[in-house]
Write a structure and sequence with these properties.
It contains two helices and two strands; from the N terminus they run H-H-E-E. It is mainly alpha-helical and 92 residues long. A two-stranded antiparallel ribbon has the order 1-2. Strand 1 and strand 2 form a beta hairpin.
Length: 92
Amino acid sequence: MSFHPNDVARRARMSSWALITGFVLLVGAFFKTQVIQNRQYVMQSQENRLRPIPLPAPRGIIYDRHGEVIAENLPAYSVSITSPNVDSPRTE
């Protein structure tokens, strides 16, 4: 490897051009993704939303150490009536 000033300057120019070329390629790829292919990614993001899927939580019967039932499953219903506006309930 020679350290002649002309060789050092030539290697510096070549590495500068390589870095500039790589930077231009990256900027071009970012531009293509963000501007040109924008509609494709917008559509993909609209279709790729999280959807909640309710999963029932299976519970089991809980026994103590003597085999007696401590807690078991029983169906229960909760009904409530709420006023449309808490500040002004209807008076009838």
